[in-house]
Amino acid sequence: MKAIFSTFATLAFLAATPVQAGEFSVVFINPGNGTSFWGNVAGTMQAAANDLDIDLEIIHTADESTSRDRFSASKAAKDVASRDKKPDIAVIVNEQGQGPELLDTLNKAGIKTFFLASKLTDEQEAKTGKARKDIPNLIGSLTPDYEVAGYEMAQSLITAAKASGKDKDGISILALLGDTATPAATEREDGLKRAVAEEPSAKIVRAISVYWKRDTAKERVSAFLDREKADGIWAANDPIAFGAMDAAREKGLKPGTDISVVGLNWSTDAQKAVKAGEMTLTHGGHLFGGAWAMVLLYDYFNGKDFAAGDNPDVKYLMSAITSENVDEFLTKLGNEDWESIDFSKFSKVKAGVTDYTFSADAILAAIGN
After folding, report:
1. In terms of Cα–Cα distance, which of 275, 297, 281 is closest to 346?
2. CATH classification of 3-143+286-318+340-366, choosing from 3.40.50.720, 3.30.465.10, 3.40.50.2300, 3.30.200.20?
3. Given this model, what pLDDT does residue 36 score?
4. Distance CA 170, CA 266 (A)
5. Taking the model in full, what pTM does it have?
């Protein structure tokens, strides 16, 4: 199978015609660059493609100097759509609300599509139509349950504040949002709000957008701490959690003692911070979404449809890495050796499993086996 990496700044459900392994090709239009979270998504996707003998091309639409560039993603979709030899399917992300545009471009070219990480919102779907039913080429989606993740992150901050007696005067939470333009971001924030609504002593003192940048997080948290206090910082990903901790330290606050911090992404650095007691947890597991997408598509193209009844949208839970399980994660995943996992064992076609188990425990059990 080949691996290519490039960068740009009918009512009845349709069953795929079975193919021989290695006879279908996938293009993933990756909204990020080759590092950090989206780099890991690409890494797990490629490892799974290798295990399943899938032709995979990954197009990164951002480099080190840009972030989540909607114009580059649009250009990438048009490039793929204009090719003489088109892929069997394109994996796309509804980043910055541009899912309908990418979908339209690829659908007009007759290319099957599959949403990863962020699918169409209800409002978008009302305009475009539903997967398979209204758009036969759109075969489905795979998304994590971001709302539960945001909820569990907030619960961790509340638990930490109570354990240190800070709930007596009320628990103040500062929320650092990566953006407000994606379904994933909205769902994570909804989870945060649900947890706070359930705890009378907790409140969100501020919600600040920091655009996924560590430096911006540091700057804005520093300005906030000059005027107000927070017992906990809810950060939408690990890098901005680190920016928040940078600011806290400059103000003489010790993360994990004076102020609690949570992040998301399962980054190795965040796992080390959890082990050191500086973060209460890093939530995640969705970096394996790339691998799970390959498993679902492999089964689909080999006659085992992943759709549950009339629902082609698959959702899975993420998990928290805490002080209780961080050692095992660091030991098994700390080197980010995705090739050590045999992803074919998650396939209904390859392994004969009856249900998909896209969980943290399943990942750990599969490493080195």
Report:
1. 297
2. 3.40.50.2300
3. 82
4. 29
5. 0.91
